Structures are given as structure tokens and as C-alpha cells.
Amino acid sequence: AALIDPEAADPGLKHFPLARTCPFSPPPEYREFEQDRAQLVGIPSGERAWALARHEDVRAMLNDSRFSSDRFNPGFPMLFNDGGRGRTPKIKPSLINLDPPVHGQARRSVVGEFTVKRMKALQPRIQEIVDTQLDAMLAGDRPADLVTALSLPVPSLVICEQLGVPYADHEFFQTHSSNFLDRQATVDQREAATVEMRDYLSGLVAAKEATPTDDLLGRQIEKLRAEGTYDHDELVGLAFLLLIAGHETTANMISLGTVALLENPDQLELIKQDPGKTLDAVEELLRYFTIAEFATSRVATEDVDIAGVTIRAGQGVLGLSHAANFDPETFAEPDRLDFTRGARHHVAFGYGVHQCLGQNLARLELRIVFDTLFRRIPTLRLAVPFEQLPFKHESSIFGLHCLPVAW
Ligand code: HEM
């Protein structure tokens, strides 16, 4: 395997994060990975990290315990300005930042809250939430903003009810989440968002410690206390992760998926004719947009031979899930949105031990939303030209700021 000096000058260096020039495609530079499957690239800290773009390489990396998820490990490739080394974490790390064996223990403790069976039980309530939001939208002015009418409230209400967080506080946590995910925010702004959310959730968890509640956070307190492993700050860390991951991701997929369906009427027709196909459509839309592509970054803890190179201990790695989901060897004609292709092996939810904990919930919400939206409003259309839609190019989670629609 070739060993490349990470400090060597390289005029052709790609600087990450790269922009999507078309909201429906990965950055055009990803095509160059077809010749060169692993590349050293520049990241905002001024350091270099390895970028892997092939589906098989990204999966192999994510399934290899020699790569760490610890964001506070020096060398972890941050795609926003994190203030450099030596900043102390403002919140106790949770699942997504943990390595085995601590990760496995933490995940086993909560995984029972996200089983397929549990999600099935949530189905009627999610349907009710979607219908209520659509009732209000239909009764309101046209055009409407689908983001505020549907995309944000549906997953926010669902995760609030699941965790036991009051939905009345949605403006507070939605604003702070989006500041936390904004790559253009300063370190101080990100930290302020983290601290305010942490303090808010800490108060909420303290109240549940005093008065037990039958919700995810309340049940965790009871269970972990019985096991003798309960830790307040750990639960606050988990609540923070679940609250952000639970609404921002799915909200953006609802908005982007709706645009893709409106722009691809032949594909929309497939699910209108047969709602049984909507789950396939959801998988393909997840592949197509890969909204959380840098969630699959890692740092090597040992020297590892992979993708034809040797990644040295301490070097950062970007598992480019968006590139992997457009790998033509895995997904033929990847630029074509094709609900019939069978896209379930995409890596939009990651792969390996950290694979998305909320994936069954996300799938369920997306299926119900798309089925209900186009059944109830078959004449739905964009209220502005596609070119004027404000895509979230600056966020860690790709999506839309607003989505004007009419019918
Ligand atoms: C992990 C994407 C929805 C909770 C992940 C990862 C990705 C991802 C790529 C892997 C991160 C890694 O490898 O380190 C998405 C997308 C979603 C979505 C695209 C929606 C369309 C949700 C929802 C929840 C959630 C609804 C919670 C209710 C989590 C958690 C983890 C995670 C807790 C960390 C799991 C672990 O490290 O063990 N997600 N997610 N996600 N996601 Fe999601």
C-alpha cells in the first residue's frame, strides 16, 4: 500500500466541505475519485484527512474498530471551525461520539426504544400528527411554507412525545439545533447553542428524576437507577443527541423528498398508483440526498491498509457516504432517481455499530408523510421556480430553509 506524506504540497488539493452545485447531485469533484479511490484532502483546520468515496471502502472503514468516532480525539476531522485542540466538551459525549466498549453498553441501554415493534405502535399517532398539520395548512393561506407547516413540526412533535420534551419549547430547540449545525457559526455561537440546550435539558431531566414520567428519558432514569449505572450528565448528552438528530434530519428529508417528487412526476406516479412502493421510494430518496454525509467521519487509532493506501494512526478519515451512494459500481446510473432500483444498501444512515439508531422511525415518518401529503393534496406544486429554492448549503445536514408550495 502506498504511504503518502500528509504534509506534502499538493496544488490539486480538494478543500472540504465541497459544495453541491446541483441540489440533486453530489459535488462534481467526487467523480474524480473514480480514478483515485482514496485521496488526501484539506479540511477547515488546515490539516489533511483521507477521503474515501467507494461504497465498499466506506463500508469497510465504518465496520473497522480501528477507526474512532471520538470527536475529541486529536486528528478527528471536523468540517467546521471547532476552535482548535484543547477545547473542553460542553456536554457529555453520547453514542455518536463513543467508541467500543462504552458505545455498545450505551446503545444496548436505549436500543429497545427504537425497535420495529415500538415504531409500529407509534404509527397511528404519527398519522394523526401529519393529518392535523395538513388540516391546518389546507385551512391557511396559499402559498404555504411546507417547512414550517409540515417538515419541521412532524418529526419535532414525534421526538418530543417520545423523549418527554414539551413541544411548546419547539422554537427554542429548533433554533438552537440549527445554530449548532450551522458550519458558518463561530465556535462561540456553537458553544452557546450547546450550553443553552444542555442547561434546558438538564432542568428537564432533573424534573423527571424527581417525578417519574413514562417517556424515553423517564424510563432510562428508572432502568439505569435499578442497574446502579445512572448518570445525570450522560442522560442529558443522550437527550441532546436524540432531540437534534430526531428532528433536523427527518425534517430536511421531508422537504427535499417533496421537491424531488414534484420534479420527477413519473416517480411520484409510481407511489400514487401503489402506496406499497413508498418504502422503496424512501430508500431511494435517502440515497439520492445523503443529507448527513459527514456524520460518517472517523480518526484512525492504528495504521490501517484500506482502499489501496495506508492510513496512519492519528489521521482523520472522511467516509464520503454521498459519494458511496453514487458509486456507479453499486448503483447503476446513480444520477437517476429510480424508486425501482432497490436502494436499501445505501449508506445514508451510516454502516456498522453506529448505524443510525432512529432509522426505523425516520423511515416510518417519511412513508406516512409522502403518502398522506400527495393523497390529500394531489395538486401540490412549487410556488416559486426551482432555482429560487433556498437550499441549506452551509449546514452539517443538507436541506431546505423554506419550501413555498401551492395547490
Ligand atoms: C446515527 C443519519 C434520523 C438518531 C446516524 C448516522 C447517520 C444518520 C449517517 C451515523 C453516524 C456515524 O456513523 O457516526 C440519519 C438520517 C436521518 C436520521 C439521514 C433521517 C432521515 C434519525 C432520527 C433519530 C436519529 C429520527 C432519533 C430519533 C441517531 C442516533 C445516532 C444516529 C442516536 C447515533 C447512533 C450511534 O452512534 O450508535 N444517523 N439519521 N437519527 N442517528 Fe440518525
UniProtKB/TrEMBL annotation:
One of its GO terms (molecular function) is heme binding. Pathway: Antibiotic biosynthesis; vancomycin biosynthesis. It holds the Pfam family p450. Transmembrane segments: none annotated. Keywords: Heme, Iron, Metal-binding, Monooxygenase, Oxidoreductase. Belongs to the cytochrome P450 family. Involved in the coupling of aromatic side chains of the heptapeptide of vancomycin. This is Cytochrome P450. It comes from Amycolatopsis panacis.
